[in-house]
């Protein structure tokens, strides 16, 4: 039975960088699972790479069709942005393939409940809040239209969304501390190999 590895962590913890490096590791043979969002594209993003960008109407239709596994809606200063994982054929449950996706604690628990605890494995990324804030600020400065207020809202919301109580309730037992990106990727790759 294939595994679904779910990278979890607060904003600016390095999930995207870890994700791309793990996918490039040919030994791991991981297939990407691309989530969906209704938020606007950021500078450098392309539809179908980090996200499938969809309108609210398209998201509503997918929900009506029963294709959404989990959906989170965030009331941002720019309006409500939705993020979701869909049962759209990206994950073949009949195969022995292994998959990698990025999500929140809430997304992880819903995906785990949908596909089964024996199949969905959490990879929790931990980073010092000061480092995260610095990374988030640097990323926002690089945007054509920086959204500093939204960056701050997300940073503060992470404190509740990733509280110790919620991590414990989700069954998170192992954390990977991302002090050095390459070391963290190697540690996670070794863990994945041990699980598969």
Automatic annotation (TrEMBL):
Coiled coil: none annotated. InterPro entries: GK/Ca_channel_bsu, Guanylate_kin-like_dom, Guanylate_kinase_CS, P-loop_NTPase. Keywords: Kinase, Transferase. One of its GO terms (molecular function) is GMP kinase activity. The keyword Transferase applies. It comes from the Bacteria. GO terms for cellular component: cytosol. PROSITE patterns: GUANYLATE_KINASE_1 (PS00856), GUANYLATE_KINASE_2 (PS50052). Residues 2-193 form the Guanylate kinase-like domain. Belongs to the guanylate kinase family. Essential for recycling GMP and indirectly, cGMP. This is Guanylate kinase.
């Amino acid at each position: 039975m294939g595994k679904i590895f779910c990278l979890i962590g607060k904003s600016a913890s390095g999930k995207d960088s870890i994700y791309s490096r793990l996918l490039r590791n040919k030994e791991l043979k991981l297939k990407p699972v691309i989530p969906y969002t209704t938020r606007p594209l950021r500078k450098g993003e392309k539809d179908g790479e980090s996200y499938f960008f969809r309108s609210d109407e398209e998201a509503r239709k997918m929900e009506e069709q029963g294709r959404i596994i989990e959906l989170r809606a965030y009331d941002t200063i720019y309006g409500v942005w939705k993020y979701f994982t869909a049962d759209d054929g990206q994950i073949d449950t009949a195969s022995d393939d292994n998959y990698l996706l990025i999500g929140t604690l809430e997304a992880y628990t819903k995906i785990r409940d949908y596909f089964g605890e024996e199949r969905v494995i959490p990879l929790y990324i931990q980073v010092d809040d000061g480092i995260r804030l610095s990374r988030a600020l640097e990323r926002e400065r690089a945007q054509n239209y920086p959204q500093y207020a939204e960056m701050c809202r997300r940073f503060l919301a992470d404190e509740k969304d990733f509280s110790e109580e919620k991590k414990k309730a989700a069954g998170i037992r192992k954390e990977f501390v991302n002090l050095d990106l390459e070391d963290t990727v190697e540690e996670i790759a070794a863990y994945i190999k041990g699980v598969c």
